[in-house]
Specification:
This protein is an all-alpha fold. The protein has 2 domains: 45 residues; 44 residues, no CATH class. Helix content is 71%, strand content 0%. α1 crosses α6 and α1 crosses α7. The longest helix is centred in the N-terminal third of the chain and has 17 residues. The chain is elongated and about 45 Å long. It starts with a helix and ends with a helix.
Length: 94
């Protein structure tokens, strides 16, 4: 398989992870925990923007899901072949 095909396959699997995820219902504590993981500049920006503005960010969703045991890497390992996993890692999809 070509690298481009493997990348496309990995990208579709990431999209599928979010589509199949449980309901996303973060609260202020979830938001505060996520913001605390960011660099100082981003922390300031996103605190100002607030929970509802940031709720659409995939990094926030991933943080929320992974705290609840729904891990992207585990999902991809169950979905992708080893070659596609390597491409996902190399291209920082995980």
């Amino acid at each position: 398989m070509t690298t481009l095909y493997l990348f496309k396959f990995a990208l579709e699997a990431v999209a599928s992870y979010y589509q199949e995820a449980p309901p996303f219902m973060p609260d202020q504590e979830d938001f505060k925990r996520w913001v605390a993981t960011l660099n100082e500049l981003d922390q300031e920006l996103y605190r100002t923007k607030g929970l509802y503005y940031c709720a659409g960010f995939l990094s926030f969703r991933r943080h929320y899901y992974e705290l609840r045991g729904y891990r992207l890497e585990t999902y991809l390992e169950a979905t992708l072949c080893e070659e596609a996993m390597q491409v996902a890692r190399k291209n920082e999809l995980i």
